[in-house]
């Protein structure tokens, strides 16, 4: 595995791939790698000649009161994992490299970013769009691998890629879960043992609605109520939002007739967790 800690080295490594017409899959991450990240690498390796991963904790997507300073950065362990799963190039930029401009420049997506996490994390998706646009310009991959776990991020970035004519195929990969159903996340490491034992209830609540949906229920309010009723029994879980939105428009339809997501953000202790399930008629 080649490691690039600066842009010139990254470009030198990538030049060989483009000169030999090799396809490149790109997996952007913030590190603290887990099974979810690894599944993206595995998808990329199946579909491309080379796989590039970035690890960068992007400051512009964190709010002033969020966990930027305390975000896990186990870089040596991450390097070992990336190497053992066959990443070809690992890009490890720093802030001065990613944001050389003295006056900020931002990409603002103005529809899909407004709801769900965007409503609770002002500016978050501007930061996500901006850093991913910069990374795409640098890596120029054939395919971009994103997790469905961050469904809104996938929606916003798919839109950005189309709207700004990036020549890349976006691949949304299924959410990888722990055995008890909790979606793998770098932030799960913040949970106390007691919070960790409660956290799978978030997915259980979504599953209750998904089962109703499979059995034919299409009424938005009834589906939401299934999940809400379950969550109400779990006292320490503080739900920020629980929402059912169509995938194509991100709108709340009374009756689910098109592929949709049931998405949740909930706070457990000091940890904010997100999850979602797809409801496809
Ligand atoms: P992060 O390091 O949290 O920014 O995530 C990097 C990429 O991994 C994003 O595309 C995430 O959606 C994806 N990802 C995170 N957790 C999971 C998971 N449990 N299953 C699948 N993909 C994930």
Class by alpha and beta content: alpha/beta
Q: In what range is the share of β-strand residues?
A: 15-25%
Physical arrangement of strands within the biggest beta sheet: 1-4-3-2-5-6
Number of helices: 10
State the distance separating the first and last CA atoms.
43 Å
Task: Catalogue the ligands.
Answer: adenosine monophosphate
Low-confidence stretches: none
**N-to-C SSE series?**
EHEHEHEHHHEHEHHHEEE
Shape: globular
What does this structure look like?
Helix content is 38%, strand content 20%. It is built from 10 helices and 9 strands. It has helices at residues 7-19, 35-47, 75-84, 95-98, 116-120, 124-139, 151-163, 193-198, 200-214, 220-232; strands at 2-4, 24-29, 50-55, 89-91, 143-147, 169-173, 237-246, 260-268, 271-279. Strands 1-4-3-2-5-6 form a 6-stranded parallel sheet, sandwiched between helices. Strand 2 (24-29), helix 2 (35-47) and strand 3 form a beta-alpha-beta unit. It is globular. Bound molecules: adenosine monophosphate. Residues 29-30, 36-37, 39-40, 146-147, 149-150, 173, 175-176, 183-186 line the site of adenosine monophosphate. Residues 29-30, 36-37, 39-40, 146-147, 149-150, 173, 175-176, 183-186 line the site of adenosine monophosphate (AMP).
């Amino acid at each position: 595995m080649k490691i690039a800690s600066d842009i010139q080295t990254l470009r030198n490594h990538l030049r060989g791939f483009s000169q030999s017409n090799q396809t490149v899959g790109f997996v952007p991450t913030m590190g603290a790698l887990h099974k979810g990240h690894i599944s993206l690498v595995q998808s990329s390796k199946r579909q491309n000649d080379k796989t590039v991963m970035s690890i960068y904790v992007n400051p512009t997507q964190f709010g002033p009161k969020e966990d930027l300073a305390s975000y896990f950065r186990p870089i040596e362990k991450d390097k070992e994992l990336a190497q053992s799963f066959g990443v070809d190039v690992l890009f490890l930029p720093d802030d001065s490299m990613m944001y050389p401009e003295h006056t900020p420049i931002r990409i603002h997506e103005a529809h899909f970013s407004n709801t769900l996490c965007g409503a609770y994390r002002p500016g978050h998706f501007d930061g996500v769009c901006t850093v991913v646009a910069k990374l795409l310009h640098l890596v120029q991959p054939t395919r971009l691998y994103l997790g469905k776990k961050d469904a809104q991020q996938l929606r916003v970035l798919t839109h950005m890629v189309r709207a700004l004519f990036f020549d890349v195929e976006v691949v949304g990969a299924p959410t990888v879960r722990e055995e008890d159903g909790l979606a793998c996340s770098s932030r799960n490491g913040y949970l106390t043992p007691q919070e960790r034992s409660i956290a799978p209830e978030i997915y259980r609540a979504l599953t209750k609605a998904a089962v109703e949906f499979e059995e034919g229920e299409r009424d938005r309010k009834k589906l939401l109520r299934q999940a809400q009723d379950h969550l109400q029994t779990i006292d320490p879980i503080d739900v920020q939002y629980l929402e059912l939105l169509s995938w194509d428009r991100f709108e709340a339809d009374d009756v689910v007739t098109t592929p949709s997501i049931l998405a949740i953000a909930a706070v457990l202790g000091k940890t904010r967790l997100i999850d979602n399930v797809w409801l496809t008629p």
